Task: structure prediction
Amino acid sequence: MLRGILPDANCEGHFQVVLRALHDEERREFWHFLNLAILNFENLGLTPNASDRDLWEQCQNHDVILVTANRNAEDPDSLEAIVQSCNCSDSLPVLTFANVERIRRDRQYAIEAADRLLDYLFSIDDFLGSGRLFLP
Result:
């Protein structure tokens, strides 16, 4: 069972835009039903400059969905490299904003991201082991 959701440091503000859409009347009941804590790095014992490996492992160990804008695969310690090398059939996916800048400037796009997020969260077991999923 999921404990919470963690916006990565690179998209906290963007996540807040999506969170506002989750509190709209059409989505509020579904969002509250999930009863997920919105966590931060400190809640998981991480420093703001924690490695992507530590971040991914803490999310996996504590049943927390990571939301990020990070698609970097530039080095062996990048989030993408960690997902590719450590992901297994029961790993939680990393949710990634497909177009992080559009979240802030396009309300309809933020609503679509919120709807997709709910879809993923309500059927998270179907997505275990998928590695990375995109919003929207």
Remarks:
- The chain has one domain: 4-135.
- The longest strand covers residues 64-68.
- Residues 18 and 114 are 5 Å apart (CA to CA).
